[in-house]
Protein: Methyltransferase domain-containing protein
Amino acid sequence: MAASAADVARAYEDNKLAQVLYHDWESQTYDDKWSISFDERCTAYARDRFEAIVGELPQEPYGTALELGAGTGFFSLNLRQAGVLDEVHVTDLSPGMVEAARANAEKLGFTVEGRVADAERIPYDDNTFDVVVGHAVIHHIPDVEQALREVVRVLKPGGRFVIAGEPTRVGDWYARQLGRLTWKAATTVTQLPPLREKWAKDKGQLDESSRVAALEAVVDLHTFDPAELTRTALRAGAVDVRTHTEELTAALFGWPVRTFEAAVKPGALGWHWAMFAYGSWKRLSAVDRVLSRVVPEQLFYNVGLTGVKPA
Ligand SMILES: C[S@@+](CC[C@H](N)C(=O)[O-])C[C@H]1O[C@@H](n2cnc3c(N)ncnc32)[C@H](O)[C@@H]1O
Structure:
């Protein structure tokens, strides 16, 4: 169901309600929107993000794992497929997302425990998990330090948390500028008569996209400076805290591409385009790994965070 104008108005009043409304609504189409799958492509992506942040993969899967803001299960279900996690518990503030993650796990042939939960008040006992993971979640949480304190509480002594895919302050700025320019250009050019029929979204679809963009601005609460994020995790009680940044040219390419995909008629671009976009993103990510030796970390788009509960 699409977000109505009244929904958007209510969401401005109450941020947690906005999160539930937006993500419940998104849960139906989330995997398509973000090209999420549970095959080798996304399993390798999840495993590589985990390894890049932690520095190595575990010899054995972590026994009990919790994911915060799991969405449809992209990170933890793929990490389980990659042999990084064993018993997975998914949590999310949005009931629709928890349902979607459970359904995805079932399709993959395993069951996960799913709970609707606010990361600022995790409904599990102290010292429960060997690892806590999250992907693209803490930028939605009002009190990040409180959420990390909760993460440390539910971890067993010596347990690790791994949070991937959060926007840096600088990266978010350039991604949004590029997104805005691409949106304006694509929606203007596709309205030209020779292109309109094949490429243009109709007015209803464009109005809905604008409402979604308005809600997105409400639910995206933070961007992060890596050094500041490290200090937040240390204040929350973690030790051995590290950040890792990635995606520079890949983000400069990827955000306009993603915006273009959202700006044209659904289905107009096809499979060849999807392969071109993914292939280019992968090649540019390889360039970024080389650049990371010389470019300051805060200029990259994504930041990941890891830390350990004191033994
Ligand atoms: C951008 S989505 C990411 C979903 C998934 N981790 C992924 O990478 O595909 C952010 C998720 O965080 C959830 N979320 C937002 N605020 C939350 C909170 N306070 N506690 C737990 N989850 C929250 C949303 O419902 C949404 O599913």
About this structure: The CA atoms of residues 155 and 249 lie 36 Å apart. DSSP finds 13 helices and seven strands in the chain. The chain has a mean pLDDT of 94. The first strand starts at residue 62 and ends at 68.
